[in-house]
Amino acid sequence: MEYKHHFEGNYCIAGEGEVVDLQSGTVYPLPPRTLYMLDKHDAHIIRAMRGDLRVVCVFNPPLVGDGTHRADGS
């Protein structure tokens, strides 16, 4: 996942997961009550590890219902 034109904020509300930075390979744990931000349009993946992973995502500028997400993140 990557959004070239948006800043992204995420808050884990349930379950456990991890965020993987695809450029560095660094893995960050994602337990409940964790907030993380992506401000450099970082290419990343999120993996669910335990329980039902539930993450609230906020984008700026906001995503709209008719937007198209291309493979290059634009």
The fourth-level CATH homologous superfamily is Jelly Rolls
Question: Can you tell me the CATH architecture?
Answer: Sandwich
Overall radius of gyration: 12 Å
Largest sheet: 4 strands, antiparallel
Global geometry? globular
Highest CATH level, the class: Mainly Beta
CATH topology: Jelly Rolls
Spell out the helices and strands N to C. EEEE
Report the count of strand segments.
4
Structural class: mainly beta
Tally of distinct domains: 1
- What is the average of the pLDDT values? 88
Portion of residues within helices: under 10%
Distance between the termini: 11 Å
Report strand %.
Answer: over 45%
Number of H/I helices = 0
Low-confidence stretches: none
Overall description:
- Strands 1, 2, 3 and 4 form a four-stranded antiparallel sheet that branches.
- The chain has one domain (7-60): Jelly Rolls, CATH 2.60.120.10.
- The model has no long low-confidence stretch (mean pLDDT 88).
- The protein contains no helices and four strands.
- β1 (7-21) and β2 (27-30) form a beta hairpin.
- Helices cover 0% and strands 55% of the residues.
- The protein is mainly β.
Characteristic terms for this protein:
74 residues, Jelly Rolls, four-stranded antiparallel β-sheet, mainly beta
SSE blueprint and pairings:
Elements: E1 7-21, E2 27-30, E3 34-38, E4 44-60
Antiparallel strand pairs: 1-2, 1-3, 1-4
Summarize the structure.
The chain is mainly beta. The chain is built from no helices and four strands.
